[in-house]
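Students often ask why we bother predicting the structure of a whole assembly rather than each chain alone. The short answer is interfaces. A chain on its own may look different once its partners are present, and contacts between molecules only exist in the joint model. In this exercise we take two input lines together and write out one structure for the complete complex. Read the inputs first and try to guess which parts will touch.
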Amino acid sequence: MLLMQPAVEMESSVNNATAATRVIIIIPAMNEASSVGQVVRGALRVLPAAVALVVDDGSTDRTTAEGEAAGALVVRLPYNLGIGGAVQTGFRYALEKGFDVAVQVDGDGQHLPEEIPKLLRTMESENADLVVGSRFIEESGYRPSFARRIGIRLFAALLGCICGRRLTDTTSGFRAAGRLAIAHLSEMYACDYPEVESLVTLHRAGFKIVEVPVHMVARAEGSSSIGAIQGFYYMLKVVLAVLVDVVAKPIFTRQEIETTLRAARK
Amino acid sequence: MNLHIAVVICAIGGFFALLTFELVRRKHLRPEYALLWAALALLTLIVALVPGVIELLIRLTGMTYQSSVIVLLFVFTAVMLMNYSVIASRHGGRIIRLTQEVALLRLEIQRLRNGKEMPKN
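Now the answer. The structure tokens for the assembled complex follow.
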């Protein structure tokens, strides 16, 4: 596996409580020129020491230019890989450069940068590998349609059964991943329905997943493009993908990753 | 099996054997993917050249009608297509990884060119 090569800049701040935690903010963006700059500036204002990495997923507008102007590094994919492939590019970068925490924030501005520290604090206090920002733990003002609510409930119930713990927001793309989770995700991140599927693979691989309540901004223009029939079809595909993930091999466990990274450091 | 049919089957088997060999020789077909085709040619030739094989197959499978051959063809086609689906999936995964690597390398080159570690405001 590619990961098994020792990472180049892995030395810094490993198992060193006094060293500052190196945080990277991964911002997947496809044609988000109007919002990506604001997201980057917001994130860097909250965490001035962090690195913002915009993954431009084959945009045809000024997403790259806006991201760079706002002070982010921009990885530009030559064509559209989809959200899964784009975010995974960020995780691969984070792994290679030895970041301790990777925070994923959508480029469309629906996630609030001010809530990033909440994810980081929870990761620390709960000793979690993955912290997911959830719209549904507390009253967050988010009002999905009836059909959407059913889908959300179904995913939550399914994932809850598989993972053996209560999960409320399985499609949330507002998350923070620790070092071992970064290593896992840079190998295993699903390209089809990455948010839902990664919960299953991370759980199976022995990672600790924790949710925290967050607020999200409603979609600025228009509603989601998913209609009723497409919505049902989407649900069916996700459920199938999740069932495949339950039996998929290999799972690349937390234990294996820990052993490998420790060996690479020596 | 009468001689006429034996000759026709033999010709088909020989044609596939030659075609596979020639495609591999000209590097239009990678040897790993040629194996199934080579197996098909070999099987066809065996059926044509070794007397009694067809009769044995009929007794084993219970396919007494000529049209049952179509079932065999279908099975072979299905195996072939499954083989290609696996190959296509593998290549799909590799292309994604390559795309990511290329994009990351491009960022790295740009950073080296600019001579600074991180562009920050």
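Check your guess against this: Confidence is low (pLDDT under 50) at residues 1-18 of chain A.
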